[in-house]
Specification:
This protein has 14 helices and 20 strands. It is α+β, with helices and mostly antiparallel strands. Bound molecules: zinc ion.
């Protein structure tokens, strides 16, 4: 143990985490919680398990702060993963194999890598006798991928004192992006769009399919509505994160109307990054109509994935979307609304992450982004007003490759990035708790 470096320690821990199958559903996150509890205990950090049902435990550990009034920092991660089809993989998804400087397996990027780095950060600080001003908290929670209320939502409601914190570092970003011309950004997510799917129930009149003239085909009536949604381009709107991002990119204030062109002018990648963040997006994804080939459907039901800007309301979006769809024989219904929160950009946590980037790579900048999807950060922002950012720096692996591997085959993480992550988390903990 004495000769083990943090690099070896985090690699070994990640390999052991990957070998525990926590595909959600069913999750079985207690396997990981127990392993983490043992690892932390060996390093003198007490942890507690909180479980709504025995097999789906959340783990929380802390180094108590010197003062109850000083801000607390929560290192947050989730321990479940999405499924993996072993037939699509080059290596066994639960092997945790180390090959060419990368650790392979489901969850390596999303997000057992960050689970391991968080654990090693708090364990190593504890071994060194670190006494933070406010509590340093480590939470490894269940059920992020499905969100059936076994994880952080349940913790915030039933055990708020365990996870309440002023600051939180979670998953979501950290990619190093080189836009050329010396513009190197590390992205930090400070906001997330709201997942706000809706359904359209289009009405017609059934009839025998051999005589289309006597019926009113709901499926056919849905077609122009789908086309209108596909062609819809919202009025561009510049939210604080994208405004700051573009200012850093081109060194001046940018208007909403020119934002996409300006970003594309810098690089196609910058254009892709900005495009979905200038307004709400709609993607029709599921359709169902008649269950019988020879029956013209009286009802066609369409499900549309829709993402709103943080702060944008469903009422406002519905007015826009009804305008796009026009009058018709349909019912519009929101199916849910999750996420859509943000944290401010000028905070001590931002400065702490920024100073890490400056120390690691002086020519690089920390730049804010809004995520098109959402993470568990929104529970903390909603429950406690926590300043939560998504940041896990990734320098060795190409960000486009990483984006392709998440939730897909051959997921893996570079050991260099794991080690960088541990350094970053230790730095942030020392800055906030120093
Ligand atoms: Zn995740």
């Amino acid at each position: 143990m004495a000769t083990m470096t943090l690099r070896d320690e985090v690699s070994d821990l990640l390999q052991r985490l990957i070998r525990l199958d926590t595909v959600n559903p069913p999750g079985n996150e207690t396997l990981v919680a127990e392993l983490l509890r043992d690892y932390l205990a060996e390093n003198g950090v007490e942890a507690e398990l909180y479980a709504k049902v025995p097999e789906r435990a959340n783990l929380v550990a802390r180094i108590a702060g010197r003062s109850a009034d000083a801000p607390r920092l929560l290192l947050l991660s989730h321990t479940d993963t999405v499924l993996a089809d072993a037939a699509e993989w080059q290596l066994d998804p639960w092997s945790g194999e180390l090959k060419d400087g990368e650790i392979w397996g489901r969850g390596a990027l999303d997000m057992k890598g960050q689970v391991a780095a968080n654990a090693v950060a708090i364990a190593s600080l504890a071994r060194e006798g670190f006494e933070p001003s406010g509590d340093l908290i480590f939470a490894a929670t269940a059920d992020e991928e499905v969100g059936d209320d076994f994880g952080l939502s349940w913790m915030c409601r039933e055990h708020p004192d365990a996870v309440r914190a002023e600051y939180c570092v979670n998953e979501g970003a950290g990619d190093r992006i080189d836009f050329g011309d010396g513009l190197v950004f590390y992205l930090c997510s400070a906001a997330e769009k709201m997942s706000s799917p809706f359904s359209l129930r289009v009405h017609g009149r059934s009839g025998h399919a051999s005589m289309p003239g006597i019926a009113d085909n709901a499926l056919v009536k849905a077609a122009p509505l789908i086309e209108r949604l596909a062609e819809f381009r919202p009025e561009p709107r510049l939210e604080p994160e994208m405004a700051a991002f573009l200012r850093q990119l081109v060194g001046r204030d940018v208007d909403a109307d020119e934002a996409l062109d300006v970003a594309r002018g810098v690089s196609p990648l910058a254009g892709e990054l900005v495009e979905a963040l200038l307004g709400l997006t709609v993607s029709p994804t599921i359709i169902s109509a008649s269950q019988k080939r020879n029956v013209i459907p009286a009802l066609c039901e369409l499900t549309v994935d829709c993402r709103l800007l943080p702060g944008q309301t469903q009422a406002e979006a519905e007015r826009v979307l009804r305008g796009v769809l026009g009058e018709g024989d349909y019912d519009f219904e929101w199916l849910e609304g999750q996420g859509g929160t943000r944290s401010p950009l000028e905070t001590p946590l931002w400065s702490a992450i920024e100073s890490f980037v400056a120390a690691e790579e002086p020519e690089a900048q920390l730049a804010p982004v809004c995520l098109a999807g959402f993470t568990d950060s929104h529970w903390l922002r909603e429950a406690f007003g926590t300043v939560a950012y998504g940041f896990f720096p990734m320098r060795a692996m190409d960000p486009e490759l990483a984006a392709r591997l998440i939730h897909s085959a051959d997921e893996r993480i570079a050991v260099d990035d794991l080690e960088l992550g541990v350094r970053c988390l230790r730095h942030v903990a020392e800055q906030i708790g120093g």
